[in-house]
Amino acid sequence: METIQETEILYMEVHAHPAETVQRNFTASIEQMTKFKGAIRSAVAEFLTSFDQAEFARCVDELNQPLYHQEIPKILIVAALDRSDEAQKRASALLEHLVKAQLLTPVQIENGFRHVFSRFPDLLLDVPNAEKLLKQFVLRAVNGKLLSEKLANELCDNAAKITDGDQVRKAKTKSAEIVAEYFDSQDLAETERCIVEMKAPHFHHEIVKQAISCSMDRASREREVPRRYLVAILCVTWLDTIMLTRTLVYAAGFLLD
Prior knowledge:
Blueprint: H1 2-14, H2 18-50, H3 53-63, H4 71-80, H5 85-100, H6 106-118, H7 120-126, H8 130-143, H9 149-160, H10 165-185, H11 188-198, H12 204-215, H13 220-237, H14 241-256
Helix pairs in contact: 2-3, 2-4, 4-5, 4-6, 6-9, 7-10, 8-9, 10-11, 10-12, 12-13, 12-14
């Protein structure tokens, strides 16, 4: 009987529809990432108390999930923003240690910093001096040969376009209104007019996030068309390559966090 059941399971795996296989693998991957991020958050909390680099590195190594290591810089930096100057310097030193220990690659460091800066509008609401603190993290990373000056300038220049928390709050409110109106009317021309009137292209990622969030509360038939067209019109019409990348990274981070 056990042999028959095992054969049936094997047959189902081999003959599963490709879409079912992709969905199953995607779900498993999300679960793995969620567990990994939870473990790293715990390890970061411990590190910001003990400053034990070796212990943190041991925890990362034991998780054995190198595919998700680009999450480490983001989690570490964000957690350190409301800590002391000393803790922030220790966090930067930890990143250097992890690179030397070959637990982080240069690409993972870069992607991690990009992810942090893609969340800058939200960080600014919680940490009013986030721009200053993040620039210090970038400067230490450049001095430690973890980031190139070109990328450092790009990240800081994008952050400088967002001046304060009030600006962020207003943009979030307006974005939510635009998306809600679009889901009710599906009037692309009116949506385009409203977005242009915002005069805030550096907040277009917020509209994408709001569209995804709003679509989650809809039935599947209502969900797909509005989301597809809204994201398409944003990405194709107004976003340059840098902003498009930022938008997609931000939206992906919103879904996975």
